[in-house]
Specification:
alpha/beta, 4-stranded mixed β-sheet, 6-stranded mixed β-sheet, 2-enoyl-CoA Hydratase, Chain A, domain 1
Amino acid sequence: MTFSNILFEKKNRIAYVTVNRPKVLNALNMATMDELRAAFHEIKNDAEIRVVILTGAGEKAFIAGADIAELAQHDAVHGKEYTHRGQNVLNLIENLGKPVIACINGFALGGGCEIAMACTMRLASENAKLGQPEVKLGIIPGYGGTQRLPRLVGKGIAMQLVLSGEMINAQEAHRIGLVNEVVAPAELIPRAEAIAQKII
């Protein structure tokens, strides 16, 4: 399959999936979610692939959340469909049967933070910012973040983050258990590859 919004590469039994919409901070639209679903289905069925590294293109964002321009066009029916499609993709990632390492470079907000939480482990660059700001738009984290976040950081901290829409830095995310490690930006992919090699 040819992809327009993601980059997909296989090398040394590792699959590299990169959300490639840097001009909009790798925001998630329907087309991107569909491509992620297709890529992860291919990964699931490829016995050669043992580990996945998921990241965002550029230095500013892992995934900055939903594409607000597209989201604003949805009525309630389309919004529900959008949410279900996103949930299906994240459930696929979470239950892939192969470790998925999220490399969080820059912003991981809303759906981007939810995708990171669906991964097996999360590495953050020192400039990463994470959060669930949906409440500021009058919505909730719709891709399962209300369930995954408490499992990672505990109910009290999760409620505070979701209800306030607060954005936290990489060091705080590490302190509360949202990310496994914090590394220099240049070390993000190499560190993920080192972990992947130990798994392989």
